[in-house]
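Sequence of Platelet-derived growth factor (PDGF) family profile domain-containing protein (Mycteria americana).
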Amino acid sequence: MNFLLTWIHWGLAALLYLQSAELSKAAPALGDGERKPNEVIKFLEVYERSFCRTIETLVDIFQEYPDEVEYIFKPSCVPLMRCAGCCGDEGLECVPVDVYNVTMEIMRIKPHQSQHIAHMSFLQHSKCDCR
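Predicted 3D structure, token representation.
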């Protein structure tokens, strides 16, 4: 049943897209950074970009290393690829199915004592799925 609903949603999205494409044939396509302030973003683009996928997310280092509270980190957050987005079924959740470690140089400061560049590992998501 959920499979059928997903196909119906995609079919409706395609019809709406084709209808709006006819109306805007003369208008040039705009990339992400080239949007006009009052431009309406098309349904299909909104739908595709909201679906479960990896996206760069700023993650607080303390979220990944909660036991290292005696340090101050610079920067205090790092850019990581993480799973986010919506699934076609409300009973499903966007979760990572393929991950790997990435090592970054972070300034680790122990107030009034020392500071040094440390190599710290973070989990990066490379593939997501609705489960």
